[in-house]
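User: Hey, my collaborator sent me this sequence without any context and asked if I could get a structure. I don't really work with proteins. Can you help?
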Amino acid sequence: MPDIHVSMLALNVPNVFPSSVPWIDFARHKGLYINHHSTWMRPAGRLIIWTVIFTIGVVVAYLWTRRPKPIEPATWAQTILGAMAVWVMMALGYGTIPHEFITFGTAYLNFNTATFMMHKNRFLPFDITRSIAVDIGVSVIYGIVLTLQVWLMVRWQKRPAAETSEVVTEEADTGAGGPLARLRRRREARTSAYGRPVTTTAVD
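Assistant: No problem. I've predicted the 3D structure and written it out in structure-token form, which is a compact way to encode the shape of the chain:
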């Protein structure tokens, strides 16, 4: 019986990348050559998949920010779907991608606290471990995602409003716009069953 308490963010995503791929490598005894047994792609498979999905989402969001604001306000369904899409992008950018980068850096690249980039000497009074490189990489990822988030939100708020000749003419004739003005105009246009206009009392 499957465990129903498994988090949706922790589901096992299959890794479809090959175990080895040709890649440019450098060795002291061979120089620059093509290594046909590079194995880095499979350990970095999930990192690559989620990064590609996140990049596609950013491109789609950018294209949406170029569209003008619709005349009618968004429905509840559109609002909920938009909020869910934003949540998915934030979960990928702030959670999944940094986690996969840390896993790839510590497990495959061996950039952990047990390996060192530089030992302390007479110029450096402390050791520098390779885990610093992973921490710097994660900080860069957070900075890029935060910058993209603020940039896209600003673009979304500053979208130009869609204009049609009928709406512009109607608002110009009445001298008012907005949801209250539209509601007032709809009330004034109502008629009874006998074809007579329905009178309404204005509320100040």
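In plain terms: The beta strands are 21-27, 31-38, 116-118, 128-129. You can pass these tokens on to your collaborator as they are.
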